[in-house]
Amino acid sequence: MKENLAKTYSPLEIEAKWYPLWEEKGWFKPEVHPEGEPFCIVMPPPNVTGQLHMGHALDYTTQDILTRWRRMQGRRALWLPGTDHAGISTQAKVTESLAKEGLCKDDLGREAFLERTWEWKEKHHGRITHQLRQLGSSCDWSRERFTLDQGCSEAVNEVFVRLYEKGLIYRGSYLVNWCSKCQTNISDIEVEHKEQAGHLWHLRYPFADGSGFITVATSRPETILGDVAVAVHPDDQRYSGLIGKKLILPLVNREMELITDNYVDPAFGTGAVKITPGHDPNDFEVGLRHNLPQITVIGKNGTMTAAAGKYAGMTAAECRKRILEDFSILDLLAETEERPHNVGECYRCGTAVEPLISPQWFVKMAPLAGPAIEAAKSGDIKFIPERFAKVYLGWMENIRDWCISRQLWWGHRIPVWYCGDCGRVICQKAAPDSCPKCSSTKLEQDPDVLDTWFSSGLWPFSTLGWPGETTDLNDFYPTNVLVTARDIIFFWVARMIFSGLEFMGQKPFHHTFIHGLLLDAGGQKMSKSLGNGIDPIEIIDQVGADSLRFMLVTGSAPDSDIRFREERLEGARNFLNKLWNASRFTLMNLEDFSCGGEEEPELADIWIEERLRQAAASANAALEKYELGEAARALYEFVWDEFCDWYVELAKIRLYKGSPKQRYTAQSVLVRVLTGALQLLHPFIPFITEDLWQHLPHQGETIMLAEYPLGKGEPQLQAQGMELLKDIIRSARNLRAEMNVPPGKEAELVLMADPQFFPLFEQGQSYLNALCQAVCSWSEVYIPDQAVSAHVRGVDIFLPLKGLIDLEKEQARLEKEIKKAAGERQRLAAKLSNQGFLAKAPAEIVAKEREKEEEYGAKERALMERLAMLQGT
């Protein structure tokens, strides 16, 4: 036997010693079970730009639980870790760092800037992986990947070239979402739309022949300078005789035409809309249909271009103000209407996004989306919860071509070169030495890099060695489950699915488990910008990783978000203390214990081992359905309510006063059940369970590789009798408390029941006597004399009061308590009937007062019932 446990549970001390040993021993590697069935999760790679937040903690705790559970089932479990280069945000961070030195990236040049970025990556990568270790993540660090490592880069180039050669990647000038701060375009799903107060300005455009005006409405007057037409619906009879007439664009005096297009909603405003192909996605499409020119009046730096004429160089806001003033002077501002509107912002930096026409690289999505849609519809890929399949399909069925180029330096550079002599475009995996058409060596690589999600979309197979034919790829692809939050279904999940189907010929994972978001106590999403973010490492430093993990998982359900509450964290810590104390009690009573002796099991032993079996079955069933919170709750209730609160107390009877064989049996069952409970809990709270397991008699080096209890076997029906005994004991204890019987004072307890119950009472007599602090007897008929009673499932329980309490004194005390409770209830009732109070007091104060009134009313009724019971004796 090892030394006894410390009196107090110290999580930081325990957690610091186990993780290095686990990693050193190689127990996170799938090779620990070389013959096991493969199980694989690829870690959603955290951005190398920062540190873990509470959302990461929930995500990685979930994955670790699933991985540890499968590993303990004997599976060849691989949780493959990695980090993401996070193109836009990482470049922004390094640029900010340079600015503090008085430098910009152009001062360094591309190569020197990339060297600085790699240095920055190495520094911050270590912080992320250290935090993952602190959390207890049992991933195989020997297989760690980075989206910009050599293998992932080879996969990216392979995919780009293949798609290019199939005609699925093309380059063209299209309207994109431009962030003037990040100085790059971003995809549609990287634009966050926020409602803001705004205006709708109604402006008059005169006909060239002086015959009148057409009024249009816009929320962005600064884009007027790029207007090239006014459009109406072809069926709008108001304009039937005006189609084709020329209009003059005020301020720049450009002539343009009144056209028709089905895009126009005749019910909106006047039914006439201005067409600005250079700055609106819908107008861009109208312009293509009508062969209209594309004029860019807002530049990439967010200021007006030379095409804006006298407004050139102004910011968009300055230009708007001047244009409205000028329209007013010309008496062409018809009306100003207050109206909120959605503003698209960059999800990285919050800058308002400007639609701009720019030459970019795109992926044709329709051919790739088809198989990915079918995979979800057929159930080949299962979403958990199922409703997220509809969310996924809704996006995939309306997907647009994906703009994959970014105007950055940090990332996978596009594998395309241009010949300076003949103009040949060369797309290949490795840099060419010369032009294949004219043999010129004047070659220049495309300066852009690929969208970060391009490489992330290949993650399930690039990390396993693709495009090579590796053992890991053969063993672990497709992976078993992707675990992620719902907010990146479009960013990442969809791209992995269509990439896996296209390049591997099969889905990237069997299940997609979408867990909820972590919210603050008020229901808001946690974020630094809102000031409600909590650093999980600070929580770990305070209460340990196990408490944080258990709090996160017990609050989770597959179809709901999770609110972070301090009291739930305290509850998790209390549970770990309870587990520690029960283990310490067990170990303190094992001085004379050695395995292998003869046992003499009693009803309580049969019951607790049956309850362990049921808890194991419940936990496994819940885990199979990804109901991790339900599994944790089942184990919590077993350990706290049944093992600690009941069995430990029942075992004390034999440990302290039983025969040697009885003592040995209680010791054996304590060890077996506690060991089983620790093994069941290990995936959830790995550190404390390892430490406690090591102190108990065990086989093997680590609990990580111990067998996970499955809960199989036939139900032990005789264990049901223990539930009746527990109910009798609870009722007897309640009677003692209600009658104010002094603790420690031995009472008489009489059970009146059918004789069929007598064998059970005989088996449980020692439990009844000890836990009820009574001498228990039973009879088919009992005539009570000065006794209070309760009824439980066919058993009448009598507690004779003679000699236990002073009846007159207790009656006087109850009458006094009733009078006090009634007085408080009446006072509150009067207060709540006062209309002045109700009118002036805040709603929450009124609600609290009503709650108090109900509490005093309930207390008064309970006291009166107790008095009636006493008087009935």
Question: What does this protein look like?
Answer:
It is a single chain. This protein is 45% helix and 17% strand. It is built from 27 helices and 31 strands. The strands form 11 sheets. Strands 6-5-16-18 form a 4-stranded antiparallel sheet. α22 (720-738) packs parallel to α24. It is globular, with a radius of gyration of 37 Å. 40% of the residues are buried.
Walk me through the topology:
Layout: H1 11-25, E1 38-42, H2 54-72, E2 76-80, E3 82-83, H3 87-99, H4 105-108, H5 110-135, E4 145-146, H6 150-165, E5 169-179, E6 184-186, E7 191-196, E8 199-206, E9 213-218, E10 229-232, E11 246-249, E12 254-260, E13 272-275, H7 281-290, H8 316-329, E14 333-338, E15 341-346, E16 354-363, H9 366-377, E17 382-384, H10 387-396, E18 402-403, E19 405-406, E20 416-419, E21 425-427, E22 443-445, E23 449-450, H11 452-456, H12 459-462, H13 471-476, E24 479-485, H14 489-503, E25 509-515, E26 518-519, H15 536-543, H16 545-554, E27 562-563, H17 566-588, H18 603-624, H19 628-657, H20 660-681, H21 686-695, H22 720-738, E28 747-752, H23 758-763, H24 765-772, E29 774-779, E30 787-792, E31 795-800, H25 807-832, H26 835-840, H27 843-872
Parallel strand pairs: 1-2, 3-4, 10-12, 17-25, 24-25, 26-27, 28-29
Antiparallel strand pairs: 5-6, 5-16, 7-15, 8-9, 8-14, 10-13, 11-12, 16-18, 19-23, 20-21, 20-22, 28-31, 30-31
Helix pairs in contact: 1-21, 2-16, 9-10, 9-14, 15-16, 16-17, 16-19, 17-19, 18-19, 18-20, 19-20, 20-21, 22-24, 25-27
